[in-house]
């Protein structure tokens, strides 16, 4: 539901980095989305496609990458990638792959990060 | 023109909020204020719970009342003679740490013991936005349907206390309170769940005691 403000934050990060690198055009944007972020990737992409209009990123190819959820299990102390149980939820429930406990501390997987961009710039710059 | 590939941006869009949230919590700690964030759907009883606590305890309480565009909740709470700052999110579906920081400018932190933040009525978006509170209470009412807890795993995973409200109406709306309690524990095995009928005063003392317990264990 807050895809719009997220998209604005993402675009700011893209345009600031592009400007700092004297870009004339942004050709690719790679965004990492934690599987536990409360965002719908399709809606986010839709918002971004609208927001980039009239910017140097207007024609950029936008790639969204899923980021796995890292956990520490309170039950068995396992630390690593958590298992996703989406049997009864569209939104994944996370459980320990070792002991199947839901009693886990989520270490990573809620974030949204602008990872990289590719740009074009005038020769000689 | 030439192409330059893979310029590292590495900008975490969520981190800006988290940083501000930590800053807010520092402010609370410096003023010895225990901050509680109340989340729940529209009509679950968040404002009423805050009003009841204010009327029951002796401690000094300040309230940041989040609402999309109105100041109706802020006005309701203000009538209990406590400092209130209304936070309007405009089009946004959640409070964020930045809005809270703004609200704190008008909140006399040194004169209060507790700060209550009433989030916008929503069981989804607030999950992504820490505010800097020490404790998060999720209020859910049986009239929302007894599958509401089951359908919103993340907000319940993040909860420090779950209040299942309006249990006096459970029979009338055909809701199973037991199912809601079980679902909360499925999402968050160790969370404390209190069933309440705030209109009848049931559960209020236990809620207040749990907030105090959290404060003392900080």
Explain this structure to me?
Chain A is of the alpha+beta class and about 120 residues long. Chain A contains 2 helices and 8 strands, in the order H-E-H-E-E-E-E-E-E-E. Chain A has helices at about 5-20, 40-50; strands spanning about 25-35, 60-65, 70-75, 80, 85, 95, 105-110, 110-120. The longest helix of chain A is centred in the N-terminal third of the chain and has 18 residues, at about 5-20. In chain A, about 35% of the residues are buried. With about 220 residues, chain B is an alpha/beta fold. Chain B has a 7-stranded parallel sheet with strand order 4-3-5-2-6-7-8, with helices on both faces. In chain B, strand 3, helix 3 (about 70-80) and strand 4 form a beta-alpha-beta unit. The longest helix of chain B has 16 residues, at about 15-30. At the A-B interface, helix 1, strand 1 and strand 8 of A face strand 1 of B. Strand 8 of chain A pairs antiparallel with strand 1 (about 1-10) of chain B.
Runs of chain B in which pLDDT lies below 50 for 5 or more consecutive residues are none
Strand content of chain A: 35-45%
Q: Could you say which structural class the secondary elements and strand pairing of chain A correspond to?
A: alpha+beta
Largest sheet of chain A: 3 strands, mixed
Query: Which descriptor suits the 3D outline of chain B?
Result: globular
């Amino acid at each position: 539901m807050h895809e719009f403000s997220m998209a604005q934050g993402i675009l700011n990060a893209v345009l600031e980095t592009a400007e700092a690198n004297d870009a004339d055009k942004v050709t690719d944007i790679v965004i990492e989305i934690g599987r536990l972020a409360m965002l719908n990737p399709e809606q986010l992409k839709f918002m971004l496609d609208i927001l980039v209009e009239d910017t140097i990123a207007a024609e950029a190819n936008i790639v969204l990458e899923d980021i796995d959820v890292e956990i520490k299990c309170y039950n068995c102390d396992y630390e690593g990638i958590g298992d996703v149980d989406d049997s009864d939820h569209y939104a994944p429930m996370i459980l320990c792959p070792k002991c199947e406990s839901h009693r886990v501390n989520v270490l990573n997987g809620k974030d949204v990060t602008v990872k990289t961009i590719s740009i074009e710039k005038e020769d000689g710059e | 023109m030439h192409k330059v590939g893979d310029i590292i941006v590495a900008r975490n869009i969520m981190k800006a909020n988290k940083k501000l949230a930590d800053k807010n919590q520092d402010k609370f700690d410096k003023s010895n204020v225990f901050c509680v964030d109340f989340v729940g759907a529209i009509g679950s009883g968040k404002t009423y719970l805050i009003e009841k606590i204010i009327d029951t305890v002796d401690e000094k309480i300040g309230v940041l009342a989040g609402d999309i565009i109105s100041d109706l909740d802020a006005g309701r709470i203000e009538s209990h003679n406590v400092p209130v700052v209304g936070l309007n999110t405009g089009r946004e579906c959640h409070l964020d740490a930045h809005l809270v920081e703004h609200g704190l400018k008008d909140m006399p932190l040194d004169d209060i013991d507790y700060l209550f933040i009433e989030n916008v009525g929503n069981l989804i978006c607030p999950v992504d936005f820490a505010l800097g509170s020490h404790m998060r209470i999720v209020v859910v009412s049986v009239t929302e349907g007894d599958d509401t807890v089951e359908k919103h795993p993340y907000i319940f995973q993040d909860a420090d206390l779950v209040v299942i409200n309006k249990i006096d109406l459970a029979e009338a709306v055909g809701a199973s309170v037991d199912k809601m309690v079980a679902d909360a524990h499925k999402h968050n095995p160790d969370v404390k769940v209190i069933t309440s009928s705030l209109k009848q005063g049931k559960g209020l003392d236990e809620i207040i005691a749990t907030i105090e317990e959290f404060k003392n264990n900080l």
